[in-house]
Amino acid sequence: MPRFSIIVPSHGVAARLSQALDSVLGQSFGDLQLIPVCDGPDSPAAAVAAGYAERDPRVTPVDSPPSAGLSGARNAGVQAATGAYVLFLDGDDLLLPGALAALDARLTETAGVDVLHVEHERAPWWEGEPTNPARPLFAGAPKGAFAPADLPELTGVQLPAWSAVYRRSFLTEHKLAFPDSHFTDLGWGGLTTLAAGRIAVLRRVVVRHRLRRQGSRLNLPGPHQHELLDQVELVLTRAAELELPAERTRALFEQLFTQVLKTASRPERLPSGHRAFFRRAARLYRRHRPAGFRAPGGSLGVQHRLLATGAYSAFRALRGANRLATDTAERLPRPRAVRTRLRYARDLRRPLDENLAVYCAYWGRGYACNPAAIHAKARELAPHIRSVFLVEADQAHAMPEGVEYAVIGSRRSWEVLARAKYLVNNANFAEGVVKRPGSVHLQTQHGTPLKTMGVDQSTYTVVAAQSGSFTRLLGRVDRWDFNLSSNRHSTQMWERAFPGSWEALEYGYPRNDVYYTATAEDVARIRRRLGVPEDKTAVLYAPTHRDHHTGFEPGLDLEAFCEAAGEDVVVLLRAHYFYDRGPGRSDGRIIDVTAHRSSEDVCLAADALVTDYSSIMFDYANLDRPIVVYADDWDVYRETRGVYFDLMAEPPGPVARTPGELAAVFRDGSYAGAEAAALRAAFRERFCEFDDGRAAERVVRRVLLGEPPEAVPPVIPLAQRVPAPAAATLVRS
C-alpha cells in the first residue's frame, strides 16, 4: 500500500496537466500513487495521462464524466485510491518540491491523525508574489495532534480541499464524499472537520495554487450561487445532528455566514432570485444560530443583525448606501472640508506650476529624512524651483528658518498639492491626492527593508490587520514615477512590496550624504548639543517597533547595561518615531534623543550602535563604526512581522541574545574587534552600495532638473569613500 494517493482532476486544464503531474512524480519521496481523473478516454487530458501511465507504473488514470463536475471527479479518484493518505491537487496547480517528504515526516510525528491541514500559496496569473492565506488560520494551533474542539476556529470551511491530507480509512469509515455542488470545497471542509477525531497542521507551503486570469468560477453570476446555501445547510445540519456544544459551532457559524453575506451583498452575482436567497439565508441563520453567538462589530455586524431579522429592504438599502459612498469617495478628491474639496477640484483644472515642488516626510512629522536632504540640495542646485514642505500643525514650530511650509489639511496645502509639478515624499501623500498628467512623484523611502513591507505584509496577520487596504496602497503606488533605492537588495524588495510602473533610481539615500560630508568639528558640535561628555563612549540604542506590542517597550535595562558595559559608556536612547513623545530627558548615563529631529545627527554622535531589527543599522553602517545586534526575540519578530533575509546569518557585527551577552561584548572590546570588523565589511559591501555622499545631487539633477541618466554623477566605489570620523577616533588621535 503506497503512503500517498494524489488525485488530480483535469477538466479544462489539459494544457497544464503535465506540469501538475511532473510536480508530483518529481518529488524526492516516491512512495505514491498518482491518479489523474480525466473526462473520458477520448478527452485531451486522457492522452496526456496515458503517456505518463506508460512511463511510470505509479500513475493510475481514471475517468469521470464532465457532468459529474469537480466533486464527481474527486470522488472517483478516492474510490480508486489505495494509499494510506489521500490528497488532492487541481490540474493546473503544483505540488512544491519536498512537499511529500515534509508531509510524511509530519504524519509520522502526529501518528493517526484524520486530517492534516497544510499551508498553500495563491500565485497570481501575472508575474507577482504569492500569498499564503492558510498561515493566519494556523496561528493558534498546538504543536502536536489535537482534537477539533481544541481549536474551534479551524473549521475547515475556509480551506480548499487541496490544503489538507486525509487518512483514507477515516474517509471510508465515515463514508465521506464531496457533495455535488459548485461550492463542494466548503461542504467537504466542514464535514471532514466535524467528523475528525484528531487533526494537526503543517506550517509549510505544500501546494501552489495558480489563480486564473478569469478569476474563480464561484464568483461568476448565475443560479449556481444558490448552491452556497445548500452547503451551509448541509454543514450546519450535520453539526446539529452531532449535538456539538455552542463553543464548538460559533466559529463555524460565523465563517459560513461571512461567505453568505459576501454573496448577499453582491446582487450582481444573483441576476435573479436575490430576495429568495436572502430570505432563505435568514431562515438558516435563525435556525442554526448557536447559543450566546455575538455578531462581529462594524458594518459586517450590521449585516448580521439585518439577516437575523430578515430585513431585506434595509439590507438592500445599506448595500446601496455603501456602494454609493464608495463610488463617490473614489471619484472625488478627499480633503476634509467641503469648501476645501471644491477648491481643490478647481485648482486641479488650473495649469501645473512647473517651478513648484511639494515635500513631506513621515506623514508630516517635520523637516527630516530624504525629503529634507533633497530640499536642501534643490535650494543650491535648482533655486528657481519654489519648495513647500507639508507638516502637521504641531510640528510647524520646529521648521527651520527660511523653509516655506504649509500645514497638512489646510486650504493652502491642498492648493500646492494640486498645482505642484514635483511631489516628494518618504511615505505617501494623502489618499485624495490626484496624480495629474505631467506631474512627477518621487518616492524616497525611509530605510532599507529587513522586515516585510507593502503587499508582502498581507500574509502576516498582526501587521496586515494594521495596514489597511492593500488595494488602496497599490493605488497610491501607481502615482509614483520614481522610487529611490540605496542598494540592489532594496530595489528587488521594493519591486516585490510595491509593484508598479515606477522607475527605480539606484542613487543612494540623500539623508545619508552627511555620513561622508560631515567633519570632525561637526561631530564634536553635535555631541555637545546632545549632552554627550567628551570622555565617554556613546552607544546609540535604537530598537524598532514591534507590531505585536501596543506601546514602546525598551527591551533592555539601560542602567544595568551601562553598569555592566563599563564606566566610560553612556547610552543615547532613540525609540522608533511612532513613540516620539516630545523632548526627552537625560537620566544619569541615559540620554533620550528620541525627539531629536535628525536621526543622522544622532548617528554621527554615536561611537557604536546597538539595535535589534531597525533599518537604522543599514544607514549607520555607512559610518563604518561598530554595530551590535541585540536579538532577544528574533524568532517572534520573524514570525509575526516577516523578514526578507536571515539577519542572524548575515549580521553587521556581533549578535547578543541576552543582556549579559550584550554587556560582555562591550566589556571585553569584541564589539570593535577584528571579527566584528569583518562582519561589518561584508554588510557594508551589500547594503551601502550607492550611498557615497552625492545621492541628493543625483536626485536633484535627474528629477528636478531633468538631466539624462548618463549626466548624473556616478557612484563612488565603496573602497574610495571616507566616512565622517568618530569621536572616539579623534580622542585616540
Written description of the protein model:
With 733 residues, the protein is of the alpha/beta class. Helices cover 39% and strands 14% of the residues. The protein has 27 helices and 22 strands. Strands 3-2-1-4-7-6-8-5 form an 8-stranded mixed β-sheet, sandwiched between helices. α1 (14-25) links the parallel β1 and β2 (32-38). α1 (14-25) packs parallel to α2 (44-55) and α12 (338-347) runs parallel beside α14.
Give start-end ranges of low-pLDDT stretches.
578-584, 729-733
Put simply, the count of helices is 27
Strand percentage lies at 5-15%
Overall shape: globular
Number of strands: 22
The secondary structure category is alpha/beta
What topology emerges from the helices and strands here?
Layout lengths: L3 E6 L4 H12 L6 E7 L5 H12 L6 E2 L5 H12 L4 E4 L5 E2 L3 H11 L5 E9 L40 E4 H6 L10 H12 L3 E12 L16 H15 L4 H19 L9 H15 L9 H12 L2 H20 L6 H10 L5 E8 L8 H13 L4 E6 L13 E3 L3 H9 E6 L14 E4 L17 H7 L2 H8 L4 E3 L3 H10 L5 E3 L8 H4 L2 H11 L6 E6 L15 H8 L3 E5 L12 E2 L2 E3 L6 H7 L2 E4 L4 H5 L6 E4 L3 H8 L13 E2 L2 H9 L6 H14 L7 H10 L22 H6 L1
Parallel strand pairs: 1-2, 1-4, 2-3, 6-8, 9-10, 9-12, 10-11, 12-13, 13-14, 14-15, 16-17, 16-20, 17-19, 20-21, 21-22
Antiparallel strand pairs: 4-7, 5-8, 6-7, 18-19
